[in-house]
Every structure is written in C-alpha cells, then in structure tokens.
Amino acid sequence: MKQDLIARYGGAAPRYTSYPTAPHFRDDIGAADYREALSRLPAEDPVSLYLHVPYCDTLCWFCGCHTKITRRYRPVGAYVDTLIREMVLIAEAAPQGLRMSQMHWGGGSPTLLRDEDILRLARAAIALFRPVAGFEFAVEIDPRDTGIDRIAALARAGLTRASIGVQDFDPLVQRAINRMQSFAETAGVVGNLRECGVQNLNLDLMYGLPYQTKARTLATVQRALDLDPDRIALFGYAHVPWMKPHQRLIPEDALPGPGERLEAFNAASELLVQAGYLKIGIDHFAKPTDSMARAHAAGKLRRNFQGYTTDTANSLIGAGASAVSRLPDLYLQNAVPVHRYSDTVRQGELPIAKGVSLSNDDRLRSAIIERIMCDFSVDLSALCERQGAVLSDIADALDRLERMASDGILTIEESTINIQPPGIPFTRQVAACFDTYFRNASEKHSQTT
Predict the structure, then answer these.
(1) Residues 449, 445: Cα–Cα separation, whole Å
(2) Which residues make Cβ contacts (< 8 Å) with residue 439, sequence separation at least 6?
(3) I want to staple 66 with a disulfide (CB 3.0 to 4.6 A). Which of 73, 89, 318, 322 is the partner?
(4) Do the first three CATH levels of 1-20+358-449 and 22-357 match, i.e. the same topology?
(5) 420 and 411 in contact (C-beta within 8 Å)?
(6) Cβ atoms of 330 and 29 closer than 8 Å
(7) Rounded CA gap, 36 and 357, in Å?
(8) What pLDDT does 407 receive?
(9) pLDDT tens by residue, 294-341
C-alpha cells in the first residue's frame, strides 16, 4: 500500500513557505507598493529581519538557494555596504522607532564575511531596528570557513542561535555533492560556539542525496546526535536541475528513489525520536526544552521562508539580493541578480522585483495551509469564522480531500481535518488541495517524497 500511496501522492508540490508561493509573484508589484506598505506598519508591532548574503567560495551541487561564487573578498565587502544602505532605505520608509524581535542571516554563506563586516552589519541593523526583550539573532554557519575568530566576532555581534550546515557526513556522499566537510571540522565549530557562549544550536541535514542509503543516513544522524544540538532539520533534497543547472553535476543514477528516500527518512525520524527529540512538522526535530518544541505544543508554530519558526512577528522584512519580505497584505521579492540589486539600491531605490497583494481568499487559504504544515490538523470552521469566511468558500478543496480520506491519508470529522500517520509524508499534497494557483506544476516544484 505504501508504494500505491507514493505513486498517487508523491508528485510535485510546493513546500509552502508562503502562500501564494513565489512562482506566482508578479512584476506589477514594486518599490512604491513596498514603501506604502512599510509606512502603514504599526510602530509598536515588532518585525523580524532577514539579511541575505548570497556569496559562497565554493558551489555545493545540491544547493537550491540564490548564490554567487567568488574567490575575492572585495565584492563581498562592497555588498555589505549595499545591504546597510538598503536597511537605511527601509527604515526611512517605515514608522520611526520600528523594532525587531528576531534577526536571521542566511545565504549563501554569511560566515564568509570578515570579522569587521560581521560587526559592522550587525551594529547597523541594531541601530536601525532596536531589539525588543528576548531578541533572537541567528546565523547560518558553514563550518568550512568558520574559525574561532569568526565565531568570536559573531558572539560579540550578539549571536544567540547558530544553524550549522552539515547535509551528510559520509565522504562518498560529500564528494558527489561537492561539499567535503569532516566530522572533526563540524565538531570543532560546535565546541567553539559553546565556548563563546552560543548555546542554542541547530544542525541541518539532508536525505535523498546521491549514494545515500538508509544505513548512511542513519550513520549521519547518529553522528549529529553525538554533537547534542537543540534542533535537527532533516530536509529532503530537491532535485530540480531544470531550475538549478548546477544540479546536473549530480549523478542522477545515484539518487535514491521515492521509496528509498521515504524509508531512510522514516528510519532517521525513529532514531531521533528514540533519542528524545520531538518530531515537528514535516522535517524538524527539537528537544522538548527548545523554544520550537514549546511553540509547537502551544499551537504557535509558524512557517515562513526560513521554514519552521517560532517567529510571531506579523511582518518579516527581507534585505539583500533575492530576499523575500512578508507584510500583512503583501509579499515582495528583491531583485535576484546581485548586480541588479546593488545598482538599484545605490540609486536610492528599494530593489523590489516582484510580489503579490493578498486577497481575502489568499489570507484564508494561507492560514489553513500554515496550520496543515505545522500541526497536521486544522479546524476549517474556526479558521473560516476568524477570517470572516464560510466553508463554502473552500468547497473546491473539500471535494479533493475526500479521495485522500478514502485512502487513509487523513480523516474529516465535521469541519476538522487530521492527517493520519500514513499521510504525513504527503502533507504538502494535502496543503495543495487548498492552493488555487497550483496546477501540479512539476517544472516549478520538487517531489513530495
């Protein structure tokens, strides 16, 4: 039966880090819309801030992010200048005194920044958007370019949480994805972070990579457990070479099939749960004492462009090339090419390339999809009432869910949907039932399993 379900529901679907999803952003949304939306933000309502650093010094062949490879530091230092200038433009458009509850640096590789630029960028952000009590500052860390001095600079800048990129510890898999990174390197970074006072640590792993078997996946997870992180993310590799041409360097005949991927993920999940971690959403695991586990238990887990998050801010402001912002009624994305982004900012303009304005129907379906992705359960009547809608507004989705219920993917009791254990791997397909934009666009999305 498992193979039948994979065949039926294992196709392409969005990861739902937003709704509408990024392929449906339009180029008729621009800088003027952003400025107007920023001006309407309540000054007393803290925002979260995401800074994108697109540079890497080597190309990981599995990568699906917007990155730019460089061996010279000069363009990286110039990019920091531009990033600070963009934040100034945002602060000028926003209400005076706007504060932030979280700041996250992603990439690319933010740890490619030199120590002085780490401090310069963090201090600029904090000066423009003063932190509230309980402020969290997280950075994605590549152990291959992060020595003790770099970690000390991050700690001085106020780092509170580190997300450490691993993917897999097996040398055969590492060679196939062009990311050689020893366990000793990773363990050294973990030790240095803790020595510098950064105690909240996440490890990012992947399943579905070339040459990964269930045994190799379990071995990597066990080594990750030896490092005792607070959270582990176990992402499914998205093989989309038609969108990311460098993924063609990965030998497709070495990729595990859908059934093998699911078997490896389930085995790894069981190992993590046995080790005391709670399974959260489709791909995260956290210690019961971690803030993500507490948010999940309270029904307050959220989902945004960084994936699962404890962020409760109503607005996420993204800065940097390709960065995405989420305001109450608007999604926006910056220009992706670094040169276009930088040229626009230097001309004194916000570098918006596209976006989407949310309708009442978008907001309703977004709320439903977020609860499905976070809780595997949603009370449709309660959400409709909260959004000023009625169940008939989503009748199209209810019709599609009936077949899933007959296949044991989920149950429908009155107006409450509960995804059942056999259906958890197909959560994105359940969410897609509510997506009026989605038409099984396999050219835009990765496989579910």
Answers:
(1) 12
(2) none
(3) 322
(4) no
(5) yes
(6) yes
(7) 12
(8) 92
(9) 999 999 999 999 899 999 999 999 999 999 999 999 999 999 999 999
Domain 22-357 has what CATH class?
A: alpha beta
CA terminus-to-terminus distance, the chain = 15
* 420 Cβ neighbours under 8 A, 6+ residues apart: 408, 409, 410, 411
- Mind listing the pLDDT tens digit for each residue in 216-270? 999 999 999 999 999 999 999 999 999 999 999 999 999 999 999 999 999 999 9
Residue type, 442: S
Whether residue 87 contacts residue 31, with contact meaning beta carbons closer than 8 Å, is answered with no
How far is residue 143's CA from residue 204's CA, in Å, rounded to a whole number? 12
Place of tokens 């000793």: 184
What span, in angstroms and rounded, lies between the C-alpha atoms of 29 and 17? 20
Give pTM, 2 decimals: 0.94
53: nearest Cα among 322, 274, 258: 322
User: Which residues sit opposite 136 in a β-bridge?
Assistant: 102
Q: Residue 428 and residue 373: Cα distance in Å, rounded?
A: 7
User: Is residue 213 a contact partner of residue 182, using CB atoms and an 8 Å limit?
Assistant: no
Distance CA 114, CA 137 (A): 18
Confidence of residue 399 (pLDDT cuts 50, 70, 90): confident
The architecture (CATH level 2) of 1-20+358-449 comes to: Orthogonal Bundle (1.10)
- State how far the Cα of 282 lies from the Cα of 262, in Å rounded to an integer: 12
Give me the pLDDT at residue 398, please.
Answer: 84
DSSP annotation string for 384-438:
HHHTT--GGGGHHHHHHHHHHHHTTSEEEETTEEEE-GGGGGGHHHHHHTT-SS-
Tokens standing for 93?
């458009």
Q: Where are the domains of the chain?
A: 1-20+358-449, 22-357
